[in-house]
Amino acid sequence: MADSFMGKAATMEIPINSNGETLAEDDSLEQDLQQVMVSGPNLNETSIVSGGYGGPAGGIIPTSSIKGPAIHFNPQYVDRRRPPAPNCALVPGAEPQPTDLRMKSRAQGVGLVPSQSAASRIANQNQTDQPFTGSGMHHSNSNQNMSVEEANRGVAVEKLDSVKKWGINTYKCTKQMFSERFGRGSRTVDLELEAQIDVLRDTKRKYESVLRLTSALTSHFYNLVQTQQALGDTFADLSQKSPELRDEFGYNAETQKLLCRNGEALLGAINFFVSSINTLVNKTMEDTLMTIKLYEAARLEFDAYRADLEELSLGPRDAATMVRIEVSQQQYQVQRDKYERLRSDVTIKLKFLEENKVKVMHKQLLLFHNAISAYFAGNQQQLEQTLRQFNVKLKPPGSDKPSWLEES
Which residues contact 256 (CB under 8 A, 6 or more apart)? Predict the structure, then answer.
């Protein structure tokens, strides 16, 4: 008996579902029943597993050799498994059947046919009812992040292109510069303009020397005026304390005060002269020299691209070289226009600078001469007239000292 039972257990088939999970006995029977009711039994493809090891072909007996029906339909089994209706009354004397939640839900789902249109409507309704769900916010955030990344990528590409162009331009200009230094390359020269530039640089060096010397004169003369003022104050104090020498100390005190007053006038004229020379040298001339530096850089770039175009023109004339020659021709034309424009700017600025320099220096040199002559001649009236002529305003005494608000 035990051997028979173990033999049957050894050949028993265990039903599983599509997910690889084992099915309960009731579920497997119901699935077999539904399959038979839908398609009907196919005895030609059905096989029965025997209960022992003595059967043919390893315990598998083909059903084609079995006569008679292999499966009997039992309607009572279906009725017994169907749960009772929720609203129906129990038959008197009948035992209440235990309700299974799984079977109840299965019974309620019998006869429902899935509809694709209904499913799509439900999905659309869920999407419209929940517009601000986490997935939507995440999608909007992802779009914003993508736009920011694209903008950053575009900026990085532009910077890379600018660095690439700068590198190529620097290489060509450096090559041209060394070729000119070692006498291997040619350079574009405008003899007249180059001579004017050299004169301007020499003039600037000399004017800087004049500015340095007049600044030193202003400093020394300021110290002289301060000394004369201190000396006049000392003489005035001694004239009050020395009755026997009151007149002598008084004369010297008045003389030193007069010299100090005239010295302040001359100091104002010299300061005006220094300020005008400083503006001419460090602003007007410097601006022209900055334009000259741009012109020289443009000339170097122009010669570099010109040499590159000449080198390509001497090479082979294949398709790739012709494309490079065309690109180089365009770059050469751009550099040539830039060079011509800056050369015109330099010419105009040199002309205006020369006119401005003559006008400014004529006025300032006349002021300096008249002020120095009047001071050392002791002509106070002429010195004051000179200051009025050139609109030189003197600072009131004590204006250099900080106010009591600044001191506190």
Answer: 228, 229, 231, 232, 235
pTM above 0.90, yes or no: no
Amino acid in the structure at residue 252 = N
Tokens of 78: 């279906």
Residues 126 and 261: their CA atoms lie apart, in Å, by: 97
**Helix 246-279, helix 191-241: angle, nearest 10:** 160
CA distances to 298, 361, 371 from 388, in Å: 48, 18, 11
Total length of the chain: 408
Cα angle at 30 between 25 and 34, to 5 degrees?
A: 155
State the Cα–Cα distance between residues 249 and 239, nearest whole angstrom: 5
| Count of other CB atoms within 10 angstroms of residue 167 | 10
d(CA 127, CA 134): 12
Q: What is the C-alpha to C-alpha distance for residues 230 and 359, in angstroms, rounded to an integer?
A: 39
Q: SS3 helix, strand, coil % of the chain, rounded to 5?
A: 75, 0, 25
pLDDT in tens, the chain (408 residues): 444 444 444 444 455 555 555 544 455 555 655 554 545 544 444 444 444 444 444 444 444 444 444 445 555 555 555 555 544 444 444 444 544 444 544 544 444 445 555 555 555 554 544 444 445 555 566 777 777 777 777 888 888 888 888 888 788 888 878 888 888 878 888 899 999 999 999 999 999 999 999 999 999 999 999 999 999 999 999 888 888 888 888 889 898 888 898 999 999 999 999 999 999 999 999 999 999 999 999 999 998 888 888 888 887 778 888 888 888 889 889 999 999 999 999 999 999 999 999 999 999 999 999 999 999 888 888 888 888 888 777 665 555 555 444 444
- Which one, of 399, 393, 401, lies nearest residue 272 by Cα? 393
Structure token digits, residue 93: 């004397």
State how far the Cα of 36 lies from the Cα of 38, in Å rounded to an integer. 6
**DSSP tag of 98:** P
What the block records as the tokens of 314 is 């001497």
Computed on alpha carbons and rounded to an integer, the radius of gyration of the chain in Å comes to: 56
**Distance in angstroms (rounded) separating the CA atoms of residues 240 and 246:** 7
Q: Which residues lie below 8 Å from residue 278, measured CB to CB, with a gap of 6+?
A: 211
Q: Cβ distance 285 to 204 under 8 Å? A: yes
